Amino acid sequence: MAVYFDHRVETPENSEEPSLLMWHSALSILAVASRHSPIGGNVDIYLQQGEHVENCHIERPHQPTTLCWHPIKPVLALGWENGEVVLLVHPSGDQTVLPSTHTAHITLLEWSSSGSRLVTGDQTGTLAVWKVDARGRLQGNHQVKHAYSSSLTCCIFKPASPGDDVKMLARASVSGDENALDMFSWKGAPLKMGPQEGLTFYVSTADGKVYGVDEHGKTSTLLSMDSAIKKMFFLATREVLTVITDTMMLSQYTLGPEGVAQELQKFKLSSKSGQNIDTVCAQNGLIITATGEQVIRLWDLERNENYALSLDESLGFERGEMINCVSYCTGKEILAAGTSHGRIAMWKMVLHPDRDRGDTKAQWKLQTPTEIEGNVSQLQWGSNLNLLAANNTNTVVILHEHVMSAHCSQQVAAVQLTPTQLSITQFHTGLHLALQSEMHIKGVCVTKDSATVWSGKQVTVFEMSGPALHNKGSFPCDSHVVTVHGENLYTVEPNRVQIRTPQGTVKQLLTFSKAEGNPVLLSVCQSYLVVGTDTSHIRVFDLTRRDAKAHCNAKNLADQIPSLGALRSVKCNSNGSQVSILVTQVNGRPDQKVYFYDIEMDTLTHFDFFTGRPSSGISHSDDSERQQFQENEVSGRCPVSHFWDESEPRLFVCETVPVSSETSSSGYWDTVDVSVVTLFCTQEHGLLLQDSFAKPAGLQALLALDVPYYYFSCKLLFRRGGVFQLDEVSATSAPANHSQSSRGSVALFPQMVSRRALRDFEGLENCDKSTRDAMLNFSFYLTVGHMDEAFKSIKLIKSKAVWENMARMCVKTRRLDVAQVCLGNMGNARAAKALKEAKAEPEPEAHIAALAIQLGMLEDAEKLYKGCQRYDLLNNLYQASGQYEKALEIAETHDRIHLRATYYNHARYQESLGDKSTALANYEKSDTHRVEVPRMLQDDPLSLEIYVNRMKDKKLYKWWAQYLESQSEMDSALDLYKSAQDYFSMVRVHCYMGNVQKASDIAIDTGDRAASYHLARHYEGHDDIKQAVHFYTRAQAYNNAIRLCKENGLDDQLMNLALLSNPEDMMEAACYYEEKGIHLDRAVSLYHKAGYVSKALEVAFATQQFAALQMVAEDLNENSDPALLARCSEFFIQHSQYKRAVELLIAAKKYPQALEVCVNENLTITEELAEKMTVTDSKELSEEAHKELLERIAECFVRQGNYHLASKKFTQAGNKLKAMRTLLKSGDTKRIIRFANFCRQKELYVMAANYLQSVDWENPEILKTIISFYTKGDAPHLLAGFYETCAQVEIDDYRSYEKALDTLSEAVKCLSKARNADGQQEAKMAELQRKITLIKQFVHARRLMPDDADEALRICGVLLEEPKLDTAVRVGDVFSFLIDHHCQHGNFKAAYSKLEDLQKLMSSQNITYYVKQANLDVLHKQMGFTMDSGDHKYHDKEEDEVEEDLSMP
């Protein structure tokens, strides 16, 4: 929490009333203009603590009217009411008076963005522009001067356009960008090295006009308003000019390139008339105004929204307190407002992680006010974000923000309340003291007997003696950090630490080398001092002796921690073995790790709060599930403060905040989730998480850890009249207040420190040291996971309170096994039983939650149920604890299956409290209002009637009608029954009242079955049988109607009713007809409809009801009685309905008889019928009979010519040979091939191959199939014969003796594999060998003819002499070969001789089949022979040629 030190400015004696103040934009110097009587005024410059700069004092006999600082240099422009303008330089006090240009009241002073131009303007409308050099010195006379028609009011410079990015241009140049190179070269335009100074500005006048002045000094009118212009703002992001007039009319304009202004929007701002209005423009177009009301108004021009912020009396503001002025700090995002009662209200812009800047009003959080005297009329934030200047019309106060100092040690705590006040609490004595200092306190350090405060310039030591404080010593010292141990004070100077007495005497110096740096951080724990330097070194000193001794060598953390910027805080533990360090990274952001330096081992480890895990190599507990839970608890955070326990060296605690908020100020932590994390730190086990909890809302910050307590400072909400009021805290507070000031006067100070017991010591705060040590050891070993050591440490403890506390500890550590032991020692049987029952749940967290509930730890149980997502159990917990709002919220979002039950339970709860209206609403939401609300309101009939009429619910109408009927209010009851559409009740009431006709009309009109049934009962009771049967029928109560028909002989209606009713009623009606012996056809039909087919057929056969029999037989199937089916089939055969008879025989599984009927009556057997007759699962036929049946069916298919189905049935019968023969008859080649491949029988392969030779086997696929089948059929002799046939085809059809030779070779190979069963194989082989020999000779002769004709002719001659040559080589082919040769060589005579020899040998054949026609034509021409052969002859030349019909190859 921050406090503001108020520094009143040291005003000169003649200054009376400050009128103007202005901070320099870059330096911490403040200019204040004042008036003094009777006339005249002065201007002074002050430093940040109010020190007056004597050289910078200007006094004139005129009033100062305006101030304006140079944006960079310490040069102040002053305007006076006589038109004089002076430049005042700080700190020298040099003054430069501008040449006399203005003669009237100066109303306008404005510097350009870089300070090279100064614009001045007066009340007469004269405007001048002056040039100033880089040192802030005036350069000659004015450059531009304009005279306008009215007084000048405002001036703003237009921001310059962004300059060129030199880095980007350099990279582009290196990569070869020619344009970038030209910009760097002398050829291009001058390079803009950054944002240039904008010299264009806009001025406004009192007559409502705005003028633009460009960089050349030319002026032009931009726009005109209806009244004087009070403020102008330029929104650079949108390039929009915003204008506000004195009538609070706001207008926005866009400015074109030619100076043309176009209006965007215009609206009226709310204001209070007759008051001075203070208006500022914050970031992103946020306009803030204070108009002397109790609120300030904000207009968001970006989002077009507006809202108001008001003062809160609960924070110390008073009713009727008005806001006079406002100031906004962009860097801190704080809005400050001065009030009429001397308070400064501050609103902090708070950005929550789940919100953005568009959430407007919800982002502003009102802070604790700061009080000064008088009426605050002007506020302004300084360049240093911690400075705020306030003018209360009497003086100027500079407020310097300072983080509230606090310290706690040895059960003594001190917390700063005001810049000069401390609240001190001694917990060991129960005293509460108040310390009033004469200096501004910047730090405090307390011990058991003393309190030391310092301001950065002075150190004062107070001794606490009982209820009084005595000044023990005071001395000047510039140390910004001080710590105390015993009677020694430790202060810092460059490169050394001074050990002083309370009076300031230096007793010892602890020097640091230049490399070790300057000490900046000090911390003492027990008898050890740790020092941190600005070069990131740490040193630890032992203070147990008279002189401080080095406990270890200096440690350079920069070598161990990457990206280390600076040390933030260092602390050591009570035995000096560990040092904890918080650091800042190089980028200025806090590191998310806490570093631990082990002095003995000289090692550095860390705990990373971003991941929730310690550094690698540090041991963890073995429970991985618990470890994961702990990581989730503390991950995503950043440490902000840390402490060691003052007596236990293993125990460490730190405060953490979410990562997104670690860079925010401490005041912001009030609005975020701050958690306190406790760790055990040892050499053996490393870092172990012991506990983690959220800081309670009423507490400000952690101060110390001293088992069994945490010490927290409390939030100070406000102070009024010296009485402080705090937020309520739910923690153990200090003793009652016994306040005593240092001067002996009683002051009412609040209790500013609150103690909270550690988790392990809740209920054990006053235990003795042995119990405390045992609990600490138990907690440590439980965290480590050493259960034997944990139980050993507490084995002597008998207190139930201790065991209960340890059970609570088990909830945090998730150790159910330990918890069961604790419950046993507590004797808490109920909790043990609840824990045992909870183990039925699958989630371990649910078991822990059940334990937490039994121990009263409802918040922990709630968190556990949420963690395991058991929202149903969480819902039950909320209900059991009476938190029905939370229960309903959970049910609506996560447990909707129990939503109605939750509403119902809430309603019962509210009903028990007497809140019937809330209960009623919840009954409705649970959908139980139709029963529960009448029950709840039964004692209040009027309210119930109103509720029923309001709800208009049918069930409620019915309930209310029944109530009225019970009260004999029949007419009202009838109306309500009608509204409820309860027609049964209406008919019942009408029958009761004797209105039977009305009841009949209702039953007929509505068709309500219950109403019709009741009316039928009424008619039956009055012996109106006809109407009773009618309404029984309408009610579909057919059994009652049938009963009446049977009893009263209504046989005609009985049949129709029975058909409408169920099978039992049909059976009963059929029996009735059968017993009476009438309408037997109806009996048969009813038996059939009722499903009693056998009974129906029995009656039909007995009474010869053939028409009914025909109808019944149509529904017979295989599930019917076989004997009945056979009997019906005989009936159909007798009546020549053979097809129907066959179907019944098949259904009766009389397959042979069915087939016999088909054969005898020549019925066509379909495939479907055949399948029915040959079912494979029939048990009526043996296997042999079944095969015989299949063959008979196949034969029938053969007779029908359906070879495919015949083959299928033969196959099913196992007779594949007949199946193949049947297929061969069909001629379906594809089926034959497929069947042969399917059966895989040699005989079938041979049959198929033989068949394939009869088709077009020259097809390559068929040819391959034949060869394959003969091969698979193990018939090489047949394959050889097939090859021989193929060879003959090659000779006869194609004269291809070469292919024939190859084919015969294959035949020989096949024949050689054949078995010589009949002794003819050798003869066949010899014959094939002879054919091959002859063919080879002929082929050889044909090949020799071109090269050795004589040898070829000799071979041919030898062949012609060979007996039976035609069996191998055709004689005609040999002669044709010879004739062809002789013709080609012109030996026509020899050719003719061979032709004659051919004709002699083959006189009966046509020789043209062998001899080429061309050779015959040549011989006819050369030799003139005439050939007569068959039907075709050669004639004389004059005869026409006749084409012969010869098949030529």
Structural class: alpha+beta
- Percent helix: 25-40%
Span between N and C termini?
A: 120 Å
Number of helices: 45
**Average pLDDT number:** 81
- Give the DSSP E fraction (strand runs of 2 or more residues): 25-35%
Rg over CA atoms, rounded to whole Å, is 60 Å
Number of strands: 67
User: How many strands, which pairing sense, and closed or not: the largest β-sheet?
Assistant: 5 strands, antiparallel
Uncertain regions: pLDDT < 50 for 5+ in a row? 617-622, 665-669, 728-747, 1429-1449
The global form is: extended
Question: What is the compact description of this entry?
Answer:
It is built from 45 helices and 67 strands.
Can you walk through the features of this model?
- This protein is α+β, with helices and mostly antiparallel strands.
- It is built from 45 helices and 67 strands.
- Strands 26, 27, 28, 29 and 30 form a five-stranded antiparallel β-sheet that branches.
- Helix 23 packs antiparallel against helix 24 and helix 42 (1349-1361) runs antiparallel to helix 43.
- The longest helix has 24 residues, at 1321-1344.
- The protein is extended.
- The termini are far apart.
- The relative contact order is 0.02.
- The model is unreliable at 617-622, 665-669, 728-747 and 1429-1449 (pLDDT under 50).
Key structural traits:
1449 residues, alpha+beta, five-stranded antiparallel β-sheet, 45 helices, 26% strand, extended, disordered C terminus
